[in-house]
Design goal:
267 residues, Rossmann fold, 10 strands
């Protein structure tokens, strides 16, 4: 990673995400850009001072290459312009998360960024901490996938880079399918390909959960392996048989674990 972009609105959730982004930037020697997109009615001077304070604190505490950027306009339109200029490898955002009926109302900015940009997005729940994420005991990374062929084989590069920042990482390639069904040969080939992407540097293995519901299957596995899972990764596609953008958006709304959303298309 060369450039990480962290969106901040000065909430506790986004401030925590900025700290997460700073740790990633420091460990990967990447440039960190802290971005606030000013909304109507907000004070430009006050927001500028807040951004500069965060930038100064990060430089002092983390000793990294960091800069801040204040922009104006619609979130997605403005963010796309920033992406064109800055060419980030990763966007980091915070989310409070939710449960039940509330989840559709929570984190709308986060899910919009996931759905309307093509840069990998790392969603950091307010309860997540980098110290826990990078701990040896939280070394399981779950890549939930529909095993459809990747159009962009480079899409998983960021996942591998982040995984290598964890102590003794283990990647589980998780797929969900109904009971009494067999896996087509093409999907078997794709699963083997995914496993080969991480070997030999990272231990990886396949996992199958049988369920008629993708989200229920994923959540069942995560609940079973909650103690050592540190990161969830999902692939967002324009169209997909199983894990569509709907599922990645739903995960971003309520997960308590960091969620990395990858895009199977080139920017």
């Amino acid at each position: 990673m060369k450039t990480i972009l962290a969106l901040v609105d000065f909430s506790d959730a986004s401030t925590n995400a900025v700290s997460f982004a700073a740790e990633l930037s420091k460990r990967s020697s990447a440039r960190l850009i802290i971005v606030n997109i000013l909304q109507k009615g907000e004070s430009e001077d006050e927001t500028t001072n807040k951004l500069k304070s965060i930038e100064s604190g990060l430089k002092k505490y983390f000793d990294l290459k960091c800069e801040s950027l204040l922009a104006h306009g619609n979130l997605i339109t403005t963010l796309k312009k920033i992406i064109t200029v800055q060419q980030p490898d990763l966007i980091v955002m915070g989310t409070k998360g939710a449960s039940g009926l509330k989840k559709i109302l929570i984190g709308s900015n986060t899910v919009n960024v996931i759905a309307k940009t093509k840069v990998p997005v790392l969603v950091i729940p307010e309860v997540a901490r980098f110290e826990i994420f990078s701990n040896k005991g939280k070394n399981r990374i779950v890549l939930a996938t529909d095993l459809d062929l990747l159009e962009n084989e480079d899409a998983l590069g960021i996942l591998k880079e982040i995984a290598l920042l964890i102590i003794e990482p283990k990647i589980k390639v998780l797929s969900v399918r109904p009971r009494n069904t067999s896996l087509p040969d093409l999907k078997k080939l794709e699963r083997n390909f995914l496993l080969s992407l991480f070997n030999p540097e990272i231990e990886s293995e396949r996992v199958t959960v049988f369920s008629s519901s993708v989200m229920a299957g994923i959540n069942f596995y995560l609940n079973q392996k909650n103690t050592d899972t540190g990161l969830i990764a999902m692939i967002s596609r324009d169209s997909s048989q199983l894990v569509q953008k709907h599922y990645t958006r739903e995960m971003a709304s309520h997960t308590h674990l960091p969620l990395l959303v990858l895009h199977d298309s080139k920017i």
